[in-house]
Specification:
By secondary structure, this protein is mainly alpha-helical. The protein is 68% helix and 1% strand. The model has no long low-confidence stretch (mean pLDDT 93).
């Protein structure tokens, strides 16, 4: 109970930061807007048999919490810090939400998961087909939003073309990295390579997606500040990925995926590597408590990256109290069910 209360207080601390609070309200409006457009698109023809009807759950409430929108709120906050015009902030934020649909739906297909991006209702189990429809719907939502932005003179036609084409191009390096793991890796590279190369493509690049519009079509942006914010979000993203690796040690071992902690074990010739090979743990097992001598340094490195990212963003205008940064970074431990590890640091 105490851990739950502390996690709630930490989440409230995020909401207490003025810029983040404004960004979160804006993010909620963006989710509602995308949901409204999706509901108009994802619906079966009127003459479809009832048993084969497809539509969208009309209540987006579960998708509106701060916990579900933590990264998106941070992205939206960068637009406030960079003083982007409100109508463009909303457009870029909506494109970010579509990125979230594309990336999460692709991950669901690759990892056989079912994280909800659009609450699509279909008959049967339909885990795979829901992801396919979500990706197809996101493409059509993007077209509608860009056409509307051109009509309302928020962007020029040529800028809409650039945003449309670039929205795929910027995902390709991360997609290529995922493709190298699809059949399972045969060797574990050094941990430094995993962190500095693999994870920068796998996750860090995804934290640069919010800068698509700023870099490709926006004029008059403070380039120095934008570079600092990009570096800060990359650091934050790498911290998140290290925590993912700690949580997913069993899954990544079983499915032969890159993992910073598993590479640390491999390259230090830790005997636990042989234990894993013999034991073949189930994907959902949590293993971090079994090797604290490797996991705790990794968790400290994750915390260092998270705090460095938040501190840099704070200096550029996010205005987080220094005393709050550690607590706010700790929210990511809670979100990944690693609260016990946070208290062990």
């Amino acid at each position: 109970m105490k851990a739950v209360m502390n996690a709630s207080r930490a989440m409230a601390m995020w909401a207490s930061v003025r810029v983040l609070r404004r960004a979160f309200r804006e993010q909620q409006a963006i989710v509602r807007e995308v949901h409204t457009l999706a509901a108009e698109i994802v619906r079966s023809p009127s003459d479809s048999p009832v048993a084969f009807a497809v539509d969208l759950d009309p209540a987006p409430g579960p998708l509106l919490t701060l916990r579900r929108n933590l990264f998106s709120t941070l992205f939206q906050a960068t637009y406030h810090v960079l003083e982007i015009a409100p109508e463009r902030r909303r457009l870029y934020g909506a494109i970010n939400y579509l990125f979230r649909i594309w990336v999460t739906s692709a991950d669901n297909l690759l990892d056989r998961e079912d994280k909800v991006t659009l609450p699509i209702r279909m008959p049967g189990q339909s885990r795979v087909m829901r992801q396919v429809v979500a990706i197809m719907a996101a493409d059509r939502i993007l077209a509608q939003m860009l056409n509307a932005a051109v009509r309302e003179r928020q962007i020029a036609q040529e800028e809409a073309v650039v945003l449309s084409e670039s929205s795929l191009q910027v995902l390709l390096p991360s997609a290529a990295q995922e493709a190298t793991e699809e059949g399972g890796i045969t060797d574990r590279p050094r941990p430094e390579y995993v962190l500095d190369t693999i994870h920068r493509l796998k996750t860090g690049m995804l934290f640069h997606l919010p800068f698509l519009g700023l870099e490709r079509v926006e004029r008059g942006v403070d380039r120095r500040k934008m570079t600092v914010l990009k570096d800060a979000l990359m650091a934050f993203g790498l911290g998140c990925q290290i925590l993912d690796d700690i949580r997913d040690m069993a899954r990544d071992h079983r499915e032969r995926r890159h993992n910073y902690v598993l590479s640390c074990l491999q390259w230090s010739a830790d005997p636990y590597t042989r234990t894993l090979d013999k034991r073949r743990p189930e994907a959902e097992e949590r293993l971090h408590a079994e090797v604290p001598h490797v996991v705790l340094p990794a968790a400290r490195l994750a915390m260092k990256h998270l705090c460095a990212g938040l501190a840099a963003m704070s200096r550029e205008g996010l205005d987080i109290r220094n005393a709050a940064i550690d607590t706010m970074a700790g929210v990511l431990f809670d979100a990944l069910d690693l609260t016990d590890l946070k208290y062990a640091l």
